[in-house]
What we know:
Blueprint (H helix, E strand, L loop, with lengths): L2 E6 L6 E5 L4 E4 L5 H11 L8 E3 L5 H4 L2 H8 L3 E3 L1 H11 L7 H28 L27 H12 L8 E3 L6 E3 L2 E7 L8 E7 L2 E6 L7 H6 L5 E5 L4 H6 L4 H8 L7 H10 L7 E5 L8 H12 L9 E4 L9 E2 L1
Parallel strand pairs: 3-4, 4-5, 5-6, 10-11, 11-12, 12-13
Antiparallel strand pairs: 1-2, 1-14, 2-3, 7-8, 8-9, 9-10
Helix pairs in contact: 5-6, 10-11
Amino acid sequence: xxxxxxxxxxxxxxxxxxxxxxxxxxxxxxxxxxxxxxxxxxxxxxxxxxxxxxxxxxxxxxxxxxxxxxxxxxxxxxxxxxxxxxxxxxxxxxxxxxxxxxxxxxxxxxxxxxxxxxxxxxxxxxxxxxxxxxxxxxxxxxxxxxxxxxxxxxxxxxxxxxxxxxxxxxxxxxxxxxxxxxxxxxxxxxxxxxxxxxxxxxxxxxxxxxxxxxxxxxxxxxxxxxxxxxxxxxxxxxxxxxxxxxxxxxxxxxxxxxxxxxxxxxxxxxxxxxxxxxxxxxxxxxxxxxxxxxxxxxxxxxxxxxxxxxxxxxxxxxxxxxxxxxxxxxxxxxxx
Length: 336
Ligand SMILES: [Zn+2]
Ligand SMILES: [Zn+2]
């Protein structure tokens, strides 16, 4: 069994839970931690069951709640190295970071993590009380653990908070992957693939467990051959259908933003998605989920009609059902 639960999709926040029977991962954390937890509750997803967070790219609508959620759940975050660097740079006051500074930063992070671990171990030895950090939305909540230093390791207790509090990019653990190189988390096999988008090293993902494949590809300026190939043979395909070309052209965005959206590293239009669905798509998915719909330059019915026309008579009760992901509420979990 595999399950996909889209918690949110659009330029104000993206997040999707992918689960097998045993393993649960979150793709992107683009809403506040509080809102992500609220939506998981609505959709029947247990946050405590999450094993990891995967990040497609460092744009705000994909990482807004990332650090707070990862700290609260104490789970690792998977990035490509350039995406992690770009995210750290974004949250660090200086605008550029030399490679030397980056290495320095990584060494500091490692140290903070080691002392956090030492602290946690010391704390576990002290008492088995419920941890206050797991209840609050405060990014520093975890750091409030050592309020009763004795009989814990007093040195670790005193040195950790300042070091970590000063660092908004502190994560419980960071793991790197590379586009094109498979890896697995629990019993889910993951294939990240490069997408054309104006971020440091943006990726889509294919998830596979128990013979079921689920692919996610949003935030891409066009459908290059590697993406077409990566998403082939999917059972569930979450694909961007960002804007209607005419609505974008006549819409409220400034000219420069329109150019960006339309560019080869922007977003897929309804017609680009329809073109892919009619010409290149293999027709084998049970569900096609249209996502990252623009609230200013699209309406769900236009996206749906374009996709339905492209799918044509391949749409049946068992195959090629079209669903629309929304910004404001989670989508009913898709189970296969
Ligand atoms: Zn986005
Ligand atoms: Zn983006």
